[in-house]
Amino acid sequence: MTDTPTAAAEPARSGLSPRQRRRISLGVQTVVGIIVVIAVILLADWPTIVNVFLNRDVAALMIPELFTVALKNTLIYTVSGYLLGFVLGLVLALMRLSSLAPYRAVALVYIEIFRGLPALIIFLLLGFGLPIAFPGFKLPGQEYGTVALALGLVAAAYMAESFRAGIQAVPKGQMEAARSLGMKPGRAMVSIILPQAIRIVTPPLTNELILLFKDSSLVFTLGVTAATTELTKFGQDLTVDQANSTPLIVAGATYLLLTVPLGIVVRRLEARQRRDR
Amino acid sequence: MTHAVEIRDLHKQFGDNLVLKGIDFTVEPGQVVCVIGPSGSGKSTLLRCVNLLEEPTKGKVFVNGAELTDPDADIDAARRHVGMVFQQFNLFPHLSALRNVMIAQQRVLKRGAKEAEIVARENLEKVGVGDKWNSYPGQLSGGQQQRVAIARALAMNPDLMLFDEPTSALDPELVGDVLTVMRKLAEEGMTMLVVTHEMGFAREVADRVVFMDGGVIVEDGPPSQVIGDPRQERTRSFLRRVLHPEG
Ligand SMILES: Nc1ncnc2c1ncn2[C@@H]1O[C@H](COP(=O)(O)OP(=O)(O)O)[C@@H](O)[C@H]1O
Ligand SMILES: [Mg+2]
């Protein structure tokens, strides 16, 4: 067996064939892994862990508000912020590619600022700064409006850069073909360029949805009520209340319930684009 | 009588690179004019100036008597009457063949979906890809894509068709299908300005052949003269290279 042509082609330095060396390496890795797992199992205080992190009675307290209030609000915040970010991001991308220098400059400054700032700062500024700067001013939808705005402003900067890259990835001949058929520039952009660009940037745009889903937890900085609470705050409040970490675990698992499938979708889309290319 | 195309003293400069150095010529309605010449001589630039995909640096372009280089001209309206076929087809990859041929009818000519579809099917049929109406460009051969692109241009009822090396990107065995369609168009009386390296097509179909070199027109006349019995040494040496690439 050691004298197969492939094995013979490799220099047999240690007297072992490459296949034998690979087997030994795999064996060592497996043994190390098993030792680590056994050590963790033996050293951990399992009854306490289950009681503190996976307590059924505490978890039961979260139903049904976990879904009817917390998850629902998280979804409302995420989707409304995403839609705002999508529209604003598209406008910013078109401004970035405009032939008018002032448009390009404004879009660039916006993108650099909002991409460079922690989302937390934007939330804090909108939550505390806006009411002071514009007394009596209320965003439509109360807390919901502020959250959508804050999330949308952050998302728009990232999405604008994705859209711009997508638009630029559409071959120049597409715009020329559209113009040669008599389409005006705006019409060609809407009917021909953007549908292709959006397809190209669907993976990064879906990633942005995942990021936004998590960023929606920053709404706690605006001070939420029992009715406007979302997953993280809901889990955190109950954790403090019950002196037990199970609610945070459950809230975390609820995020994963949505982010993991979305992540799979992103990888599938990326794989398909690699294949098509 | 108005010319289908009239070009006067056309100059085009890219940065320091003067590509067109004073082009004058006309195309009469119903004529087929083939433009030949070495690579880089400015043939594509000339063609793209006719529908203002490139803005001339100097000179005038008239299509059907209307000046496109007039600053007040409605370029989008003028382009509706000028079909263009590109070397790389430039079909819209996100749309089926049928929708490729329908979209400008609907969005530019404001035809209803029904009418646009009827016109689209007619034209796909005419270029021999009627059965491919539901395919996407990526599922079609180069020859089929180019014929869909021709149908897309024809669906706008153009008075003039511009072809920029329509068969140069095709596998040799697919060139014939596209040339057959172009021959048919010529027989129907379509006015055509064709940049091509297909000397057989130019000789048989063209009313006139224009030989360009270095951004100027070197020779302009019937194919029997420009290809059959060229007066200029530059034309002769170009034809020697094209017709006998080995020797
Ligand atoms: N958009 C452009 N920008 C800069 N240079 C260009 C552009 N288009 C064409 N050129 C230049 O113009 C010259 C003629 O090109 P082209 O008209 O494509 O020639 P042909 O079609 O005869 O091969 C070439 O030197 C080319 O590099
Ligand atoms: Mg060319």
Strand and helix map with partners:
The complex is a heterodimer of chains A (277) and B (247).
Chain A: H1 5-9, H2 18-43, H3 46-53, H4 56-61, H5 65-96, H6 101-116, H7 119-133, H8 143-169, H9 172-180, H10 185-200, H11 202-215, H12 231-242, H13 246-276
Helix pairs in contact in A: 5-6, 5-8, 5-11, 5-12, 6-8, 7-8, 8-10, 8-11, 9-10, 11-13, 12-13
Chain B: E1 5-14, E2 17-27, E3 32-36, H1 43-50, E4 58-63, E5 66-67, H2 75-79, E6 82-85, H3 97-107, H4 113-126, H5 142-154, E7 160-164, H6 172-187, E8 191-195, H7 199-205, E9 208-213, E10 216-221, H8 223-226, H9 233-243
Parallel strand pairs in B: 3-8, 3-9, 6-7, 7-8
Antiparallel strand pairs in B: 1-2, 1-4, 4-5, 9-10
The complex binds adenosine-5'-diphosphate and magnesium ion (MG).
Describe the structure.
The complex is a heterodimer of chains A (277) and B (247). Helices cover 78% and strands 0% of the residues of chain A. By secondary structure, chain A is an all-alpha fold. Chain A has one domain: MetI-like fold (Orthogonal Bundle), CATH 1.10.3720. The longest helix of chain A is centred in the first third of the chain and has 32 residues. The model of chain A has no long low-confidence stretch (mean pLDDT 88). In chain B, the strands form two sheets. In chain B, strands 6-7-8-3-9-10 form a six-stranded mixed sheet, with helices on both faces. Chain B is globular and about 55 Å long. The termini of chain B are far apart. Classes of the chains: A mainly alpha (277), B alpha/beta (247). At the A-B interface, helix 9 and helix 10 of A face helix 2, strand 6, helix 3 and helix 5 of B. Bound molecules: adenosine-5'-diphosphate and magnesium ion (MG).
